[in-house]
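ok, trying the design again with the full structure, not the truncated one.
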C-alpha cells in the first residue's frame, strides 16, 4: 500500500471520532507495510486533553512492540500534528510522519515556525488526501455552528 491507501485507513479512524462527536482526527502507525496501531481523538470520551489520535496511536504501538522508540515506523494522521503530539513523536524517534490537512491554527508549524520539532532523522510529508481530510474537519465544525 502507498501513502494514500494508508491515509484512507487513518480517515476511517477520523470518521469514528466524527461519529462519536469528537474532533475528527485519525491516526495509524505502520511498520514493514503492516498497520500496528489505529486510533482516533478521544478527548471528550476520556475527559483528557492529551487524548489526541497521535498520542493514542503511539501508546498502542509502544505496547504492541514492547519498545519506546519507533525509528522504523510511519505515523499517518489526518491533520497536521499539534506541538504536544510533535513532542511525543520527537521522543519516540518516529521515522516518518505523513499528514493530510494542514492546520494553520493549531499545527506545529504555526508554533514552531521554521524550527523542526521532530527528531532530526524524521521525514515529514504533508498534504496527502488533503481535501478529504480537510472536508471532514470542516463538516464537523460546520455542524457545531448550526
Amino acid at each position: 500500500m502507498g501513502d494514500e491507501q494508508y491515509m484512507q485507513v487513518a480517515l476511517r479512524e477520523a470518521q469514528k471520532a466524527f461519529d462519536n462527536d469528537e474532533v475528527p482526527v485519525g491516526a495509524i502507525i505502520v511498520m514493514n507495510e503492516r498497520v500496528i496501531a489505529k486510533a482516533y481523538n478521544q478527548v471528550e470520551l476520556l475527559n483528557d486533553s492529551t487524548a489526541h489520535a497521535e498520542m493514542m496511536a503511539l501508546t498502542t504501538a509502544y505496547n504492541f512492540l514492547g519498545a519506546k522508540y519507533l525509528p522504523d515506523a510511519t505515523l499517518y494522521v489526518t491533520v497536521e500534528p499539534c506541538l504536544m503530539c510533535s513532542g511525543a513523536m520527537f521522543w519516540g524517534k518516529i521515522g516518518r510522519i505523513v499528514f493530510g490537512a494542514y492546520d494553520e491554527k493549531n499545527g506545529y508549524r504555526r508554533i514552531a515556525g521554521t524550527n523542526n520539532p521532530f527528531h532530526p532523522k524524521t521525514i515529514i510529508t504533508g498534504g496527502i488526501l488533503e481535501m478529504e481530510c480537510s472536508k471532514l474537519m470542516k463538516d464537523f465544525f460546520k455542524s457545531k455552528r448550526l
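Keeping the full-length input from now on. The longest strand covers residues 34-40.
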